[in-house]
Amino acid sequence: MTSTRNIYLKMKTLEQARDILFKAFPGFGTLDTEMVTADQAVGRVLAEPVFAKISSPGFHSAAMDGIAVKAEATYGACETSPKKLILNKDAFYVNTGHVLPQGTDAVIMMEHINIQDENIAEIEAPAFPWQYIRKMGEDIVATELLFPRNHMISPYCTGALIGGGVFSVPVRKKPEVMLIPTGSELLDWKKINIENMKPGQVLESNSYVLGNMIEACGGKYARHGLMPDNPEKIIKAVEDAVNNDFDIVLTVGGSSAGSEDYTKEVIKSLGEILVHGVTIMPGKPVIIGMVKGKPVIGMPGYPVSMIVAFEQFVMPLICRLLGRPEPEREKVLVDVTRKIPSKLGIEEFLRVKLGKVGNRITASSLPRGAGSITTITDADGIIRIPANSEGIKENETVTAELFKPLNAVHNTIVIVGSHDNTLDILADQLKIENSGITLCSSHVGSMGGLMAIKRGVCHVAGSHLLDTENGSYNISYIKRFLPDIKVKIVNLVFRDQGLIIPKGNPKNIHGIEDLARKDIKFINRQSGAGTRILLDYQLNKLNISPEMIQGYGHEEFTHMSVAVAVLNRTADTGLGICAAARALNLEFIPVVTEQYDLIIPEEHFESKNIKILINTIKSMDFQTRVKALGGYHTERTGEIII
Amino acid sequence: MTSTRNIYLKMKTLEQARDILFKAFPGFGTLDTEMVTADQAVGRVLAEPVFAKISSPGFHSAAMDGIAVKAEATYGACETSPKKLILNKDAFYVNTGHVLPQGTDAVIMMEHINIQDENIAEIEAPAFPWQYIRKMGEDIVATELLFPRNHMISPYCTGALIGGGVFSVPVRKKPEVMLIPTGSELLDWKKINIENMKPGQVLESNSYVLGNMIEACGGKYARHGLMPDNPEKIIKAVEDAVNNDFDIVLTVGGSSAGSEDYTKEVIKSLGEILVHGVTIMPGKPVIIGMVKGKPVIGMPGYPVSMIVAFEQFVMPLICRLLGRPEPEREKVLVDVTRKIPSKLGIEEFLRVKLGKVGNRITASSLPRGAGSITTITDADGIIRIPANSEGIKENETVTAELFKPLNAVHNTIVIVGSHDNTLDILADQLKIENSGITLCSSHVGSMGGLMAIKRGVCHVAGSHLLDTENGSYNISYIKRFLPDIKVKIVNLVFRDQGLIIPKGNPKNIHGIEDLARKDIKFINRQSGAGTRILLDYQLNKLNISPEMIQGYGHEEFTHMSVAVAVLNRTADTGLGICAAARALNLEFIPVVTEQYDLIIPEEHFESKNIKILINTIKSMDFQTRVKALGGYHTERTGEIII
Predict the structure, then answer these.
(1) What is the CATH number of the domain that holds A215?
(2) Which residues of B touch A376 (CB under 8 A)?
(3) What tens digit of pLDDT does each residue of B395-415 get?
(4) Is there a contact between A95 and B327 if contact means CB atoms under 8 Å apart?
(5) Residue B123's Cα: distance from chain center in Å?
(6) Domain end point (choices A257, A291, A322)
(7) Does A401 touch chain B (CB under 8 A)?
């Protein structure tokens, strides 16, 4: 068994690996040429310099509406001694763009003419030669260079091409990429019914992500049918692709060191491995090979690994074939709100959410697992932590590469704290109006939200912290933990918390008291979560100590994760909100109705974005949608509590 | 005649006009919905929020290659007392992504296992529950919000959609725009032979530029056939478009105040004029109207006016219909190298070329005429000069909106000075190699180039300044005008200068001495141009005074413009380079061979980009292309003269 496992060759740094790749495939702008018409050329890359065939304008023309005259004939005109010009003899009406009548060399603006009758125009100032005239060739001179080779045609360029008489242009053919998704666990989503999926089966999505990324950078692709983990078949597919004029071949999955990861073997049997393993995260298991002089790249199967490997290796290769520079994302300096340790010797591509809080742009890290596509679809940008760094210090200023325009980052409301499903509704509701606002929520528990306010890294904290002394929510915690910060508290919802249990209640659970039973496995929330405090309060009332509860130490960070744990029987029950139970078709035993508030520092409270947020919360539309979730009460929703 | 002319209504400021437009058409995300498959949704805008249908992963799976175990069974293992696990009973081989075998709850990495034989794996440390396991729902939990409405689907999103079991998504239909190009002077480039074009005829390109811009911001379009200046026909076309489900109608041309500009009349007869004329330049003559509740916009016919009007009015409207924010260009602070006066009360969209010289990004203005499409295709960005400003001071720092990534601006070599056709060849030659360098040349004459070096706003000056005392080039001028700046001089070419004359030499010109003839109309170069100095030197030698030459005061800024003037008989002859004559199929009488050098401050001379530039100049490829132009001598090309 061990003998068939791959062992990584000596891993390369990102720079080394790119160097090896680009030296092995040095072709720059080497693709064949095809002709396309000027209007169809947008986004294409010129294979040759393009020179104008005709001048534009192709004739002297009026640059103003008025009359065309021979300048000489106007000399001497002045206010006290105006000059009369005979229309259609000395002077000719012209509109902007009209050809200059024979014998004229100046235009006088309509506003400066007194029309005497239909035959006579009077002027009170002379014209100088060539005034208000667009000369032939003013825009484009025949034979001049319009665009150099390797120029990418923009919509604007269409105008210069047609104006210069260039109706078709030589562009580079699109590089063609063959995608071969491998893995016996894969299912084709176009052919299945998701109801029938079995554990262990996975919907193949990577090749679609790749295909769309290839198109976005100017290539085209073909997708091979799903390929089981069968080296002979994969070899055949790669060989066919290489022989069939594909410029690049990508296998997807099977590039790491597992026993069924055959990519290395495949490339070795057909050609040469150039790189196996790069010291980046995600993206480490990429394999770069050469078969018959063509790049064959083993893309990692984890989606974020695959995306990073694509952007670091495949996209640059496509750009080079097209004769284009690698695209570069807009960069911005950001403050990292929490310490981010990172492994020495590995360059990490950290996905972050960004928001402008006060005068700085703050970055908070998304989960770092390479397997979660949502860590990149949720991200506003990426921070690259260099291999020689052990991570980022709290409040350190670093460079982030943006996924969206800076302006969108400025229009993000950063909400940190307890998780509640109505925040998703709120995010969507904000999008209905033309606010341009994005709601960015991080779920770190209620106490985490208060700490985020203290550190000045959010606009709003979501919190449901119960004061077990007096039954109040949030106020006493704010007094204690944020003594120096003036805040407003706005109620978002009241909501039912309770025990989430499987359909049919197989373990016959009725309330908190059952959690102490030996046959019950509990799933808890992290400490600092309002739900955790609520649990401890209830346990205390019932004189149940944590040690008596199996699974008390097993923590999840959101209501939905607790519900998932119950759904897949990792636990028998957990405390959470009704909406989470409903969402996964689980049952719910209400324990208490609690208050969920938004805590907003006064410095942000009067801002335009927060005003829109509060108006949205107060709107009927929002409240109707919230009530439809079940387990929510909106009587005080939008009320300013203090 | 005057009665049919339009008079602008009271013009609106840009802000007022946008306000009127957006209030008249407040629809945000109001387009109908259509379903597209997840893989075809890139670039489309979600019409509804999208929630996950299944969890991803859909099962607990191994996050590492190794063995899956029940954590309990590993407790107590340590180096001194390893634990043996029976394979396929206590422990099971798993690869990354594999479903966790029944009864196991942890994975131990392959690297931490000693395989004893095919039945026994030994471990020296316990596993804790859930280690190296990707839990069900770790990436996506069924029912969670994947993307809110109005989210634009990116290639990454495809992965989250498919992973979440969402195989098709509701997106907004693309807004449909009808384009109606008007003007009796227009020709359809798809149907004509440019050889047969007559003066006054113009190739219609605006509707193609518009069509491509519409597609780039997410809309689609139909193009009406070319429409003569006939109000009845235009009315019919607009009415048909409004009745036929187009969301926006654009007429192109005919929006200013000329007698044949019918757009206002057309809109008035069908509906209502909301705005006629906006205090922007270019873009002033835009007309905004409403017909049957739909926007009908009269786009100016000058291409840059049209582009500005599109980006300020039509693009935002398309974005709003789609439920998207207006796109925003990356902004950067730039130093403007020369004073730019601007008209008070008009907001100007100034097209600029940008380059990083030393530590600052310098901006130099392109020609400001709205009729020249090349002023926008050549531009690297735009500076907006507010209506309440009289312009930009020399060296003032202002904000520019970028047309290309900042990185490309950094990689621009700014060359200012005398014009020579070989600079086009050099620009193209630099593109052949993967240098990423763009050559940006401004033509302001040799002396202008030296002044640009003095002001620190260019990397290189192109110069051929003859010292009439000793026949040397450039050196004495540099000593005099740049006494404090250390520069290198690199020869670019030696070139023939001479008289450019029409084919067949109708006026029988033989040399400079003919310029004093009464029947000869000359076209001159601007003062400070090397060619002008050369002319004056030759005239002096022949004892001809400038007053004796007709047209001595009529100046052009480039060789090509001089050649164009000769071609269209504005002048009988001008002094210029052979290449310009050849390009327009004119004749050429050599007068002198002169030296054209590149002047490069030492502070830039050692930079990577300048090294690449000089290597390119020295290359055989460049020199071969230069010689093919005719009138050039490359014996000393690339030589460092001092």
Answers:
(1) 3.40.980.10
(2) 156
(3) 899 999 999 988 889 999 999
(4) no
(5) 62
(6) A322
(7) no
Which residues in B lie closer than 8 A to residue A156 (C-beta atoms)? 209, 307, 373, 376-377
Mutate to test the interface with A, among B2, B205, B321, B419 (most CBs of A within 10 A): B205
Average pLDDT over chain A reads: 91
Mutate to test the interface with B, among A3, A44, A96, A315 (most CBs of B within 10 A): A96
Together in a domain, B144 and B111 = no
Give domain status of residue B230, yes or no. Answer: yes
Chain B residues in contact with A119 (beta carbon < 8 A): none
CATH number at residue A399: 2.40.340.10
Residue B236 has pLDDT above 80, yes or no: yes
Q: Are residues B461 and B596 in the same domain?
A: yes
Specify if A424 maps to a domain. no
Residue with tokens 């084919």: B503
**Spatial distance between the Cα atoms of A540 and A573, rounded to a whole number of angstroms:** 19
Beta strand residue intervals within B482-548, DSSP E: 487-501, 522-525
Query: Is the model's pLDDT at A257 over the cut of 70?
Result: no
Instruction: Quote the CA–CA distance of B96 and B63 in Å, as a whole number.
Output: 5
Of B2, B201, B208, the CB nearest to A162: B208
For the stretch B378-390, pLDDT in tens is 999 999 999 999 9
B112 and chain A: CB distance < 8 Å anywhere?
Answer: no
Percent of chain B with pLDDT over 70: 98
Owning domain of residue B290: 2-27+175-322
User: Do residue A105 and residue A78 come from a single domain?
Assistant: yes
Longest dimension (CA), chain A: 114
DSSP state, B361?
E
Distance of CA B509 to the CA centre of its chain: 44
Residues 6+ apart with CB under 8 A from B624: none
- For residue B256, is pLDDT > 80? no
CB atoms within 10 A of CB B329: 16
Which B-chain residues 74-93 have CB contacts (< 8 A) with chain A? 93
How many separate domains does chain A show?
5
Q: Are residues A224 and A306 in the same domain?
A: yes
Mean of the per-residue pLDDT values for chain B?
92
Per-residue pLDDT tens over the stretch A158-190:
999 999 999 999 999 999 999 999 988 899 999
Q: For position A258, what pLDDT does the model report?
A: 61
Residue that the structure tokens 């052009």 belong to: B556
* Amino acid identity at A526: Q
Classify residue B427: in a domain, yes or no: no
- The predicted model gives B561-566 an average pLDDT of 89
Which CATH number does the domain housing residue A117 bear?
Answer: 2.170.190.11
How confident is the model at residue A593, as a pLDDT?
93
Q: What CATH number does residue B557 fall under?
A: 3.40.190.290
Q: Are residues B167 and B188 in the same domain?
A: no
Q: Are residues B66 and B195 in the same domain?
A: no
Chain A hits for B93, Cβ within 8 Å:
1, 259
Distance from CA of A476 to the nearest CA of B (A): 32
3-state SS, residue A107: strand
Same domain, A582 and A470: yes
Burial grade of A633 (CB within 10 A; 0-12, 13-18, 19 or more): middle
Best to test chain B binding among A162, A188, A304 (most B CBs inside 10 Å): A162
**Domain shared by B315 and B238, yes or no:** yes
What's B156's domain CATH number?
3.90.105.10
Task: Say which residues have a Cβ less than 8 Å from residue A431's Cβ, sequence separation at least 6.
Answer: A438, B49, B148, B149, B150, B151, B323
**CB–CB contact A190 B211 (8 Å):** no
Domain boundary pick from A307, A322, A337: A322
Contacts of B99 in chain A (CB under 8 A): 199-200
Q: pLDDT for A233-249, tens place per residue? A: 999 999 999 999 899 99
For residue range B22-72, what is the model confidence (pLDDT) as tens digits?
Answer: 999 998 999 999 999 999 999 999 999 999 999 898 888 898 889 999 888
Q: Is residue A440 part of a domain?
A: no
Mean pLDDT of B593-618: 95
HSE-CB of A25 using CA atoms within 13 angstroms: 29
Selecting from B159, B259, B371 the residue whose C-beta is nearest the C-beta of A373 gives B159
